[in-house]
Structures are given as structure tokens and as C-alpha cells.
TrEMBL record:
Residues 29-124 form the HD domain. NCBIfam families: HDIG, Phn-HD. InterPro entries: HD/PDEase_dom, HD_domain, HDIG_dom, OP_Dioxygenase, Phosphonate_degrad-assoc. It comes from the Bacteria. It comes from Larkinella arboricola. This is Phosphonate degradation associated HDIG domain protein.
Length: 188
């Protein structure tokens, strides 16, 4: 798949589903992902991390009509893995894929490791946590800490949690789509 085809596919997903509500939160899917990317960019993250923050929930936008593919009204089951695999197939790096694939595990980890984190989760995040397996066990947490991208995954999770604000001025999707284009072209 060419870079142009990949960017067109991502753009099409945003055009079809970007204006959809972000499952129980006061922002749209696209607003949530743009805010995540903007927070990563403001924190001085590298391009791969900004791209992962931007596309971390792309799995929610992938088409599916099957009820069992959804967490009631809270998005796609395994959206993190679906999105990571979809992006791997299109030439994104393993780092981008890992940061996306494990952002849900980061929530599970943080609710295990820091019980106060659990109390800060929004109602929607608490509901999805139930579908996602709840807080990690001690063994799961130990294994998760060994991931070479552990710190970056936690950063993406933090931006994900913060990216639910209304009336935030942010760059357009084209700003981050251009970053994706430049990044993919540099990998080919």
C-alpha cells in the first residue's frame, strides 16, 4: 500500500466517523485524537509518539457491524489491537504499533499500581475498564513493566485521559496527517 493510499484511508475513516461522539465523553472521536496528539506535541514527544497519540483510537473507527465486536455503547472490543495491526499493515513502525496496542493495558496497569488513578477515571473509562479485564494482576503488571516501550505507553495513556476537554483550540487533522505522510515516506 502506498503512502497516499494509507493517508486517504485514514482521512476517510475520520470523514466517516470522526464527528461521532467519543463514547460517553463531551468530545468527538476526532477531537479526542487531535487533543491527544497536541498534548504529545506540546510535551516534546518524538514523531512516532505524536503519531501514536493521534491514531491511538483508530481501531474504534474501523468498520464492523457485529454486535459482539462492541462494548455496548463504548466502542470496539480490542480496538487497541485492531488499530495497531491495521497500522502495522500500512507501514507504521513497531514503536507506533506498541504504543497504540498497549494504551488500554496502561489503564489496567495504572489502576492496579496506583489505586488513586482508578478514582480519577471518567464514568466511560470505568465502564470500558470492565470490558477490558479490570485492573491487572501483579504478574500481569510485572510483565507489562518489561515492555521496551513501557514509559511511552504510559505517556500515551496520560494524554488519552486528558484529551476530553471541550472548546480547546487545536491544530487541524491535516497537521497530523502531514506528519504521518512525512513519516511514512521516510520509511519507504
Amino acid at each position: 500500500m502506498t503512502t497516499d493510499e494509507t493517508i486517504s484511508e485514514i482521512t476517510e475513516l475520520f470523514e466517516k466517523h470522526g464527528a461521532d461522539d467519543y463514547y460517553g465523553e463531551p468530545v468527538s472521536q476526532l477531537e479526542h485524537m487531535l487533543q491527544s496528539a497536541m498534548l504529545a506535541e506540546r510535551a516534546g514527544a518524538d514523531d512516532e509518539t505524536i503519531i501514536a497519540a493521534f491514531l491511538h483510537d483508530i481501531g474504534h473507527l474501523l468498520p464492523s457491524e457485529l454486535a459482539e465486536d462492541h462494548m455496548d455503547n463504548y466502542g470496539r472490543v480490542d480496538h487497541e489491537k485492531l488499530g495497531a495491526d491495521w497500522l502495522r499493515e500500512r507501514g507504521f513502525s513497531e514503536k507506533v504499533a506498541q504504543l497504540i496496542e498497549h494504551h488500554v493495558n496502561a489503564k489496567r496497569y495504572l489502576t492496579y499500581k496506583h489505586p488513586a488513578y482508578f478514582n480519577k477515571l471518567s464514568e466511560a473509562s470505568l465502564k470500558t475498564l470492565e470490558f477490558q479485564g479490570g485492573p491487572m494482576t501483579e504478574a500481569e503488571a510485572h510483565d507489562f513493566e518489561q515492555n521496551p516501550y513501557f514509559r511511552g505507553i504510559l505517556q500515551v495513556r496520560g494524554w488519552d485521559e486528558q484529551a476530553k476537554e471541550t472548546d480547546v483550540a487545536m491544530p487541524s487533522a491535516n497537521h497530523y496527517l502531514d506528519l504521518c505522510r512525512t513519516y511514512l515516506e521516510s520509511r519507504s
